[in-house]
Design a protein that fits this description.
Layout (H helix, E strand, L loop, with lengths): L5 E7 L11 E9 L4 E7 L29 E10 L2 E11 L4 E4 L9 E6 L2 E4 L6
């Protein structure tokens, strides 16, 4: 599985630590290597007033021309806030080959769960969060 197979991203059960009932959220994607996380190459739209956002399908047309979409590891950062004041909520280095198949629909049981929609269904972390 490669970055080019990624269709969309959703987050479920976001833990909100800033006192608001609901948050406005967006995500950024970053290439990475073992030592470094690079500048974002993709930024989603903002979803208003949700702790369970499902963002629009990724638009590879707006990504940089020379972006290597054959990579299978990258960093996803989920940002949340209100009135254009955002803070980092979740940061995860994702290796698509290590994700567990969840099925054809989004099912989430854990806090701060990130779900990746690929060509053949939805995938998530291979372990139970405690």
């Amino acid at each position: 599985r490669r970055l080019r197979h990624l269709r969309n991203i959703a987050a479920r059960n976001i833990v909100n630590r800033n006192g608001h009932q609901l948050l406005d959220t967006y995500f950024t994607l970053h290439l990475c290597n073992t030592e470094k996380v690079y500048k974002e190459f993709y930024r989603s739209e903002v979803i208003k007033n949700s702790l369970n956002p499902t963002w629009r399908s990724l638009d590879f047309g707006i990504m940089p021309d020379r972006l290597d979409t054959s990579v299978s590891c990258f960093v996803v950062k989920i940002w949340g806030g209100k009135e254009d004041v955002y803070q980092l909520l979740i940061e995860w280095k994702v290796c698509l080959d290590g994700l567990k198949y969840l099925g054809q629909q989004i099912h989430a049981r854990n806090q701060n769960e990130i779900i990746f929609g690929l060509n053949d269904g939805y995938y998530g972390a291979p372990f139970e969060h405690k």
